[in-house]
Amino acid sequence: MALLNYGNPIRFEFGAVKHLPEALAKLGIVRPLIATDAGLRAAGLVERIVDTLDLPEPVCIYDATPANPTEDAVTEALALYRSAGCDGVVCLGGGSPMDLGKAVALLALSGGPLDQYDPLKGGNKRVKEVAPLIAIPTTAGTGSEASMGFLISMNDGRKLTFVNPQFLPKMSLCDPELTLGLSPLTTAATGMDAITHCIEAILAPSDNPPADGIGLDGLWRGWRHLRRAVEDGSDRQARWEMMMASTEGALAFVKGLGAVHSMSHAAGRLKSLRLHHGTLNAVILPAVLRFNERACARPYVRIRQAMGLPEGADLAREIERMNAAIGLPKGLAAMGLSADLIDDMLPHAVADLSTRTNARPIGAEDYAMLFREAM
Amino acid sequence: MALLNYGNPIRFEFGAVKHLPEALAKLGIVRPLIATDAGLRAAGLVERIVDTLDLPEPVCIYDATPANPTEDAVTEALALYRSAGCDGVVCLGGGSPMDLGKAVALLALSGGPLDQYDPLKGGNKRVKEVAPLIAIPTTAGTGSEASMGFLISMNDGRKLTFVNPQFLPKMSLCDPELTLGLSPLTTAATGMDAITHCIEAILAPSDNPPADGIGLDGLWRGWRHLRRAVEDGSDRQARWEMMMASTEGALAFVKGLGAVHSMSHAAGRLKSLRLHHGTLNAVILPAVLRFNERACARPYVRIRQAMGLPEGADLAREIERMNAAIGLPKGLAAMGLSADLIDDMLPHAVADLSTRTNARPIGAEDYAMLFREAM
Question: What is the pTM for the complete model shown?
């Protein structure tokens, strides 16, 4: 059992979810809103967990979280939170319910509209209080249980990143058991999300050696166990290691992320396509690794070492090989994204928070080239 | 500039010490006790820093901290703290002023005697409040600025380790500038302390992968820069990297330490000898690495990689080579410790907190053998 304490307390073990009643009691939550999605509800996971709670009233569940959660969904969940008199949030799911739940916890106590909290426009000064929030990840990729960020697709078409220490869950329960039933494709896509977090965090130019160390450890674990977890979803050790790589990815990206995420966010906001964030990261990563290489000689040496690759190995090529081996699409075109959308995505990629921490300065022309390469 | 936030806020940069007035104001300290030692006072460092403070009264300085600080010295410093009406502590120095200052901050608000806080005897329940404390390391080894522990040589001959999250400094200022004037010998001995922290933390069997990653990063930095810092004390990059390795060592040893520290503590409590903690660690480390090897196949692979050594390299031999290259003694005998003291040290090593987290179960007979080997 691992008790991690880097910013927020994380109980990490098989069966950790059984500590939810204790966590609720500790935070004084008697009427939680469970933020989750329809898939987890249908799979019976939500009920299984809710049944373990000994709460006075029927538990309030919001299960309509869409992939890449929208401002509209946040508004809807917030209305439910308020009408039911909730006093805290339990996020149960992958990145989408986590993001949605964090937005609800913020708006519940600091008030709307959401876009006033955009950190690029001084929004952090406006964050007052945030409702207590417990995170229970059901995928191994987002790392949101250990991060102070969340993203929402706004009604005006932007995908905004919100970052504040108060957005860290007050407590997280990481239970690899919950990932045993994930499909190979979801395992692959979310796993590559975790690996991209580790890599982009290591490459981010800010000075934070402990975060570098955590990112390298996460990459070391993730790279060795992703294929195993995809090929045999019941491999408990592989599931544990992938969930740890995911948590470590988020602990590492306090340094910032980079161009892969700017591009993923710009593509992920296209509501008609509903593209999976982890899959986007996986297929965009090789192009950005080629672009960044000249600025990253030293970290690339360490990244190769963490991945167990020979000196001078072509990192982009290795990622492409992994993507193919675990069944991910070859590029953005195969995901249904056509080249005529590039012009629409460019300004969003340029304006994205992660552009500021890419390893190499990057502008609109570079992004255009990278989108074409990732097609 | 690095702003680290793993447990406590650490401002890490050349010139960080200039932020002391701001740190005092932030913590509401108007009458600090400066815990330091006679060497730093004589070198003019204490006055240089005190002169930057704009405080209403003459600053209260305790500069009689002995190496391996004693309970008596703590009592004396506490009396000064109280008589001067202090409201906080600034630790300025290596590990000894840090340990002493932490003990004073605890006793000032939670009351004595000190040994009631022994964590092996349930002492943590008795910790009430701790006075606000700012740590400013002047060596790169102890890492006390980032740790929740401190050690005191008690009047009854034991050397006790106290560990509690409240013993983390409220704020730390890591300024590699302060280490530019360290002698080659102090640089070597404290540097090997940092390296031992990283290695023993990585080997400690508790599950904390982020701490493993931080320890490996600290080892990677420390091993590459120690010789440079010893050979040219004015090498600013080497000084920065060694101080970072030291901070990372302490962040890593939340996992626990091991037999090297149990033995060092047992020897360090011998008041007549006043043995340097880092030097003890350096000369004891090879014997313990040989003893632990059979329990540590996998972490040894990663340690070798972090140190840039070939597969299967003899770690113990590499440490011995480094010790020789940086001018440290060959063994305990060369430090003035005679074999007839082993029987006296054994029970202290066995009872030491770090014995519980050694990579391989270890008892009195093992310790006797290891002390002989380290002679």
Answer: 0.95
